[in-house]
Amino acid sequence: MKYLLLLGCSLAAVVPANAQSADETGTEITVLATGSDLQLDRSGQAISVIGADELADIQSPDITRALERLPGVTFSRNGGLGSFTGVRVRGANADQLLVLVDGVRVGDAAAPGGGYDFGNLTRGAIGKVELLRGSNSVVWGSEAIGGVLALTSREIDGVEASAEYGARESFDARAGAGLVRPGYSFTLNGGYTETQGFSSAASGVEDDGFRQWQIGGRGEVKLTQAISATFAGRYADSRLEFDGFSFSPPFGLIDTPEFTETQEVSGRAGLRYDGENLALDAGYAIYDIERDNFNPDFGSEPGFASQGRQERVELKGVFDPAGALRLDFGADHEWSEFETNFDARQSANITSGHVLLGWYDDRFSIAAGARVDDHSGFGSDVTFGANGSVRIADGWRARASYGEGFKAPTLYQLFSDFGNTALTPERSRSYDIGIEKGTRNDRLHFAATAFRRDTRGLIDFVSCFSVSDPLCDDGRFGFYENVGKARAEGFEVELGARVSERFRAQAAYSYVKATNRAAGDANFGNDLARRPRHAVTVAVDWETPLAGLELGGDIRMVGSSFDDAGNFTRLDGYALGTVRASVPVNDAFELFGRIENVTDEQYQTAAGYATAGRSAYIGVRARF
After folding, report:
1. N or C end of the chain: smaller count of CB under 10 Å?
2. 404 contacts 384 by C-beta, under 8 angstroms
3. Closest CA to 136 of 399, 375, 428
4. Count of structural domains, the chain
5. pLDDT of residue 286
6. What spatial distance separates the first Cα and last Cα of the chain, rounded to whole Å?
């Protein structure tokens, strides 16, 4: 209740008596509802968008600083910047969030759960964040159980650069250059991040550092009046030091000299056709990730090495024959493979097709569709979805959606030493209903949403010491099986206001109850691990009358949770504050700085892993 009270007080302070809607940020279009551009307020689904200006205000290279401003989002991290970071939306597993970077799916095909590690992604060149909350496999296929997150890099016309230095000898430098002309556009960006860090083990004293350099780009060339060629790509090379577990005294997580080296390559090239009533987008995308884990105490060779790759050909289209009627459709084929130094190379493929028929006008919108997926391992799967939105008053609309989701078993779960080729997909049904005024970036925005998601067939590891199964006859320690069932339900409240041209404020609160619903399971009725029920973020920004000086601050409050399925290890709730400032030096240069965790809060998002204390940073930005 204290979170609700704090939120209510914050919101009451920022709502203006009269506010006019205006699209001042260029963030009123989304691709997540249908797979192609759609005006945000035409969809019945819960979608939030953060634009380039807001991302720049946040300052931090840590992408989670932006994501935590969105309702329904929580995360856990195994140490400092660069450490494994799992993002959860509405209580779903971290690997049940589909993540796209410049249109490329970036799940790790060699990881047990196949999800994306946000520790490998710094904010860098990202200029737009879109988050759809709720299942939407009709448009996006596998993994879209908790939601879909799309990150898009900025298009630059000119030259930009920034650098910052701060706590724990942290350094972050970015540069980008581009041209935007009527017939073409090109942007090239690069960056380097390094930090001495701190011990990822809460009981440790040895610093665990992180460094990453990356390069990326995007472009578009108009070949004819209707046909354009597009491309985007990213390469990142990272080195992360981390701590390991001791199975002898003192037991648990302790200082160790271990480190991991990671290389990521992603890219997409395609052709786009924009006709009078028909638009088509065809492309080829690839994501490849290699990881090598080292422990110098046991030699110079990697103790564990893995490689995962996904290649994808896809075609998406929109046909709008007349008026508000619109047909979105698509087909794709994906190949995935993985191997480790313990598992031979294995592969699978999946072929999919979907249609989504909708009616979208200024007053009323409704859409419904279906998807068919055929997987080389488990066969065919069909998913359905529908959503609608209706304007009920000036600027106000009611919306509702139903979505089904599925997640194919990962290659590791199917073919590793612990694999089970009889696995079937995890499946979900998601419902939400809400009311909304404006969108998140309007002069006044209010949204309240109630939701529920039921998930069945969750894949979990089963120990051979606890069950008798023919899969254990080969002497393995355990195997993967469809044994889980879960329910997540709750509500979200958002409020944003541009009180004046100089002052804006926003807040997002989420209540999420995510529990184990597997009858007969020893943990039936328990909260799912690392799912806090309460989370709230309040942010304010003020452009002072003093020579362009801007001041801002965030408060992030997260309720308590449990670190384990048995609910034996409690993670206490916490409150973090950040203050920041920026001031222009001239037309080209700007100084900025911030202090994170101003109260030096001691907290954990994963049991045994340390988090950063009070941290100060200062930097400079330039644009020519």
Report:
1. N
2. yes
3. 428
4. 1
5. 98
6. 49
User: In the numeric block, which tokens belong to residue 3?
Assistant: 């979170």
Pick the closest to residue 409 from 95, 75, 84 (CA basis). 95
CATH number at residue 96: 2.40.170.20
Whether this model's pTM surpasses 0.90:
yes
Kindly report, residue by residue over 92-124, the tens digit of the pLDDT.
999 999 999 999 999 999 999 999 999 999 988
**Partners of 318 in beta bridges:** 279, 328
Parts of the chain with a pLDDT under 50: 1-25
**What residues have CB less than 8 Å from 214, skipping those under 6 apart?**
122, 124, 190, 191, 192, 234, 235, 236, 237
Phi, psi of 5 (to 5 degrees): -65, -45
| C-alpha dist (Å) from residue 469 to 156, 297, 475 | 58, 37, 11
Cα separation, 208 vs 197, whole angstroms: 5
> Are 592 and 580 contacting, i.e. CB atoms less than 8 angstroms apart?
yes
User: Which pLDDT tens digit goes with each residue over 570-584?
Assistant: 999 999 999 999 999
Task: Decide: 528 and 514 in contact? Cβ < 8 Å.
Answer: yes
pLDDT at 5: 38
Residue 280 tokens, joined: 């088509």
Q: Tell me, what's the pLDDT at 442?
A: 86
Q: What per-residue confidence (pLDDT) applies to 26?
A: 53
Rg of the chain, C-alpha, whole Å: 24
